[in-house]
Every structure is written in C-alpha cells, then in structure tokens.
Known about the structure:
The chain has three helices and three strands, in the order βββααα. The protein is mostly helical. The chain has two domains: 7-91, Roll (Ubiquitin Conjugating Enzyme); 98-163. Strands 1-2-3 form a three-stranded antiparallel beta sheet, covered by helices on one side. The longest helix is centred in the C-terminal third of the chain and has 110 residues, at 99-208.
Amino acid sequence: KIRESPEINLVLRPQGLTGDHEVYAKVDLWVKCPQTYPDIVPEIELKNVKGLSNENINLLKSKLEVLAKERCGEVMIFELAEYIQSFLSDYNKPPSKSFHEEMLKNQQKEQERLAKEEQQRIQDLKKKEEQMQREILHEIQRREEEKREERKRKEIAKQERFGNTTLTNQDPSTAQDVAGSKMTVSITTGATDHVGNNKYRANSAGRSK
Length: 209
C-alpha cells in the first residue's frame, strides 16, 4: 500500500498578533510533503489571502520558492511559516478607505482650504484698510500743516502791510512839519526884511530932512 503524502494547512497572521484585532493581512499556508521530503521541495500554496495585493502575493510566492530550494534536504515548514508571518507584518496595513470616505475627506480638505483663503483675504483687506487710514491721516496732517503755513504767511504779509501803512500815514505830518518850518522861516525872514526896510526908509527920511 502506497502511503499518502501528508498535507499541512497553517493559518498565519502577522508576528505577535493572535486575534483578529488589528489584523489586516493574513494567509493560509498549504504544504503537501512528498514521500521523500525533506530531500525534495514540498508543494507550496497560499490560500485565503487577505490584505495583500496580487503583486505582493506573487512576490511572497517567489520568496518562498527560493527559500524552499535553499532549505532542500532540511525540515523547512516551520521556517517557511515564520517567513510568511514576517512578510505579513510588513504589509499589515488598514485597507484603503471607501470612495465615499475619500470624497468626504476631500470635501473637508477643500473646506479647510477655502476657509484658510477666506481668512487670508480678510487679513489682506484689513491691512489695506489700515494702510488707507494711515494715508488719509497723513494727508489730513499734511493739509493742516499747509493751512498753518498759509496762515503764517498771511500773518507775516499782514504785519508787513500794516508797517508800510503806518509809515505812509506818518509822511504827510512830517511833510507838514517841514513845510511849516519853512513857512516860519520865510515869514521871519520877511519880517526882518520889512523892519530893515523901514529902518532904511527912516534913515533915508532923516537924511532928507
């Protein structure tokens, strides 16, 4: 009677994880050992794969085939199982989110972006308003300064005109005083001449007598 080749099926999870909590990748290792095992490489299959892409499954299969050939002539099933557990640990990641969840996430990001842009727009507008207020205040101060300078110039011009008017008003009096002095001198001189003439005439009359 021909002895049937033994078959072994191992349910493997990432290293250190025994339950289903946080187990996102797992696989069943099916091994069929020939009668001459371990001198001949056993038949290896991966079943009930979860959490691995087709690319990763093919990668794991090729790695197991290489390892099995290297360990040919030795008991290798336990070592193959350990390698699979290590491989699962590297790829034990949560599944990608659903399309709806991705859409909601993108909408949230878009809302955050719009809110940030709106906040930036408000800040820019506030800065522009503050700048405009500073410019208006500066213009008001400049105009006030111009008004003060204009009033100062007008005051100086007014004082100069007042001084000239005062001098002009004083000139006729001075002229009258000078004219009066000349007239007095003329009158005095005339009186002297008159007296002198009378005296002359008196002397002349005396001599005539």
